[in-house]
Write a structure and sequence with these properties.
Distance between the termini: 23 Å
Strand order of the largest sheet: 1-2-4-3
EC number: 2.1.1.37
Number of strands: 6
CATH superfamily of the largest domain: Vaccinia Virus protein VP39
CATH class of the largest domain: Alpha Beta
CATH topology of the largest domain: Rossmann fold
Largest sheet: 4 strands, mixed
GO biological process, one term: methylation
Catalytic activity: a 2'-deoxycytidine in DNA + S-adenosyl-L-methionine = a 5-methyl-2'-deoxycytidine in DNA + S-adenosyl-L-homocysteine + H(+)
Shape: globular
Order of helices and strands: HEHEHEEHEEHHHH
Radius of gyration: 20 Å
Number of helices: 8
Family: Belongs to the class I-like SAM-binding methyltransferase superfamily. C5-methyltransferase family.
InterPro entries: C5-MTase, C5_DNA_meth_AS, C5_MeTfrase, C5_meth_CS, SAM-dependent_MTases_sf
Strand content: 5-15%
């Protein structure tokens, strides 16, 4: 919203993780406190939610998102309850983001149920799998986005403005500490083996792989060749850049969560991996706001 230049007010931010709330407050100069989404009740015009992905993800537990199972991913159903509790008044737009795993044959029943529940509440929903590379960011990050709108509006994902993918070299640092150099025998032996959640480390060429919450593992988001047959991990700053954040925002957060000693910073990696690519969300907001403005004029 800030980058798009639209006047707006963020009326609340709902997050139970203390460090994530500290990050949000550092970025936006707010004073939010950690809180659970369970039982939350306010009235925004646009409601954005993204339930934890671990129970849908191929890299996670695959426990699913059934409401009765009370997994982390089942928090998606809290959004339904939140809207129900609002009564007659409802958000004009609801946006949900998650991993492609929600479309897998053993998970898609919940995805379809979500559409049915949103229709019951008066929303018309549409979804698309969007890849960050289509919006200028050299990261292979495919995520499912669902946009649900009131008053019979149908969100057309084909109207989103894409951008040519930038060169990954623009996102990489030139002077990187030796602590990022891969020295573990197990990781060295995994280089150039099968990439994916089955294992393996793949050198970054044109783009990184999906930015995850940890880098010092197999698989990760890709490794950077540094010459003489050596490779290094992506730095925390590079991961934030590959999520679409600018350096100013990164350093605000890094000051809030300083690195201790000669180690990497797990908090900064985790929060990058759990975020949504800025440019993808901006493209969606730009089209959503056009629809809202047209409705006001009419």
């Amino acid at each position: 919203m800030l980058n798009l230049g639209y006047p707006h007010k963020a009326i609340d931010y709902v997050e139970i993780d203390v460090k994530s709330v500290r990050t949000y407050n550092a970025l936006y100069d707010h004073l939010h406190q950690p809180q659970s989404v369970v039982g939350w009740n306010l009235k925004p015009d646009i409601l954005v939610h993204g339930s934890p992905c671990q129970d849908f993800s191929r890299a996670g537990t695959r426990l699913g998102g059934n409401d009765e199972d009370k997994t982390r991913s089942s928090l998606m159903w809290e959004t339904i309850r939140i809207i129900e509790n609002m009564g007659v008044w409802k958000p004009k737009v609801v946006i949900w983001e998650n991993v492609k795993g929600v479309l897998a044959k053993d998970m898609i029943h919940n995805f379809k149920k979500y559409f049915v529940e949103m229709e019951r509440l008066g929303y018309t929903s549409n979804y698309e799998v969007l890849d960050s590379r289509e919006f200028g960011i050299p990261q292979k990050r495919e995520r499912v986005f669902v946009v649900s709108m009131l008053n019979g509006h149908w969100f057309d994902f084909s109207t989103l403005k894409g951008r040519p993918m930038r060169n990954v070299s623009e996102f990489l640092e030139t002077d990187v500490d030796d602590k990022y150099t891969i020295k573990s025998p197990s990781m060295l032996s995994a280089i150039n083996k099968q990439n994916g959640f089955g294992g393996g480390l793949k050198p970054i060429e044109d783009y990184s792989w999906t930015i995850t919450t940890k880098q010092n593992r197999c698989p990760n988001s890709g490794i950077v060749p540094i010459g003489n047959g050596q490779y290094r991990l992506l730095t925390e700053l590079e991961c934030w850049r590959l999520m679409g954040f600018d350096d100013e925002d990164y350093y605000k957060v890094a000051n809030e969560h300083p690195t201790r000693g000669n180690t990497t910073n797990g908090t900064l990696y985790k929060q990058a991996g759990n975020s949504i690519v800025v440019q993808v969300l901006e493209a969606i907001f730009e089209e959503v706001l056009k629809i809202i403005e047209e409705e006001i004029v009419c």
